[in-house]
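Weekly modeling sync, notes
Attendees: AB, CL, MP (scribe)

Item 1: holo prediction request
CL wants a bound-state model with tryptophanyl-5'AMP before deciding which constructs to order. AB pointed out that an apo prediction alone won't tell us much about the pocket. Agreed to run with the ligand included and paste results into these notes for async review.

Input as submitted:
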Amino acid sequence: MPVNSAQPPGAAGLTQRPRVLSGVQPTGALHLGNWLGAIRNWVDLQSSHDTFFCVVDLHAITVPHEPAQLAEDTLTTAALYLACGIDPQRSTVFVQSHVSAHSELCWLLNCVTPLNWLERMIQFKEKAVKQGSDVSAGLLDYPVLMAADILLYDADRVPVGEDQKQHLELARDIAQQRINSRFGPKGSDGERIPILKVPEPLILREGARVMSLTDGRSKMSKSDPNEGSRITLLDPPELISRKIKRAKTDPQMGLEFGNPERPEADNLLALYALLAGRSREAAAAECAAMGWGTFKPLLAEAAVAALAPLQERYSELRSDPLYLAEVLRQGRERASSVADATLARVRHALGFLSRS
Ligand code: TYM
C-alpha cells in the first residue's frame, strides 16, 4: 500500500482550516458507540478541517492493564481508524505516547489545576467506584492529560460523544482561567494575549449516546463485563445477530422514539436509523407497527451490512504491518512539530529557562 507522499496536513493550503483533535483509548475492540458517537463524525470533518487523531494509549493505563495487550490494542485501534475512513493523506494519525509533549504539558497543567475540579468529574467518580480501593492517581488526572492532548494542537473543535462533555469543559477552563488569564502576556491595550486556544466540543445529536444492548438506561461501554451489552466493530456476523437477538426488549409492539418508559426501543431504533442510513423519521415510520421478532433481524442485517466494508478494510490493513507503522511514524513527526511548538510557548509563559 502506498504511504503518504502528499504534502503534510497543516502545510500550505490547509493551515487556515479550523483544527480538530480527537482520540479513542486502545482498551479492547472499539464498539458501535465509539464509531457512531465519534469516529464516524471524524471522517466527515476531514474535508473541511485540519484533522489530528491520536490513539490515547497513556489514558489506557489509568485503569489496570495487561502489558502484553497494550501494543496490540494500540495497533488495532489505529487500523480501525483507517478502516473507518480516516485517510492518512488528509489527517495526522498518531499514538499519544509517541509525542512526549503530551506527558510534559500534562504536568504543567497539573500544577495549575485545582484538585477539586478533578474530584467532581462524573467519569472519575463512576470509574473509581468500580476500582474500589485501588484507584490510581492517573485516573483522577485523566482529564488533565486529555486537556493537554487537545490544547497542544490549538484545536478549535473536539468531536466526541456526550459522555466527554464535562472533560471538554474542564479543558476549556484550564486553558482560559488557569493559563491564559494568569500567564498570557499583556498587550498594549492591557488585555492578556491568549497562550492556548480555547476549544469547542463538537457533539452531534445522533449517535452521541449509544446505549447498552442489555440496559437501555446505561451507556454502551468497553468496560461493561457483559460482552453481550455491546457490538464491537470486529464482531463477526453471527455474533452480531446473536447479540441483537438477546438484546433487552419490552412487552410492547412497535418501535418508537422518545418514550421514557421504553429506553430500549429508543436506543435500538436509533441504531437502526444510523446503521441503515435512514432518517429518524423514516426509521420511525417503517418500524412503528413492527413487532420485536421482525425488527431484530432487520437491525442485525443493517449492522452486519454497515460493518462488512470496515471489517474487510481492517483485515487488509492488519496484513500490512509496515504500512501501518509508516503511517504512525509520519503521524508522530507531524504531530510532534505542532505539539512541541505549543509546549515551548507554554514553557516560556510559565517562566522556564529556554532549552536552546
Ligand atoms: P473512549 O475511548 O472512552 O471513547 C472514545 C470516543 O467514543 C465516544 N463514546 C461514545 N459515544 C456514544 N455512545 C457511547 N456509548 C460511547 N462510548 C464512547 C466517547 O465520547 C469518545 O468520543 N477521554 C476520551 C479519549 C480522549 C480524547 C482526548 C478525546 C483522550 N484524549 C482528546 C478527545 C480529545 C474517551 O472517552 O475515550
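Recorded for review: Residues 21-25, 33-34, 37-38, 56, 59, 146, 149-150, 158, 160-161, 163-164, 167, 208-210, 219-220 surround tryptophanyl-5'AMP (CB under 6 Å).
Action items: CL to compare against the apo run; MP to circulate these notes.
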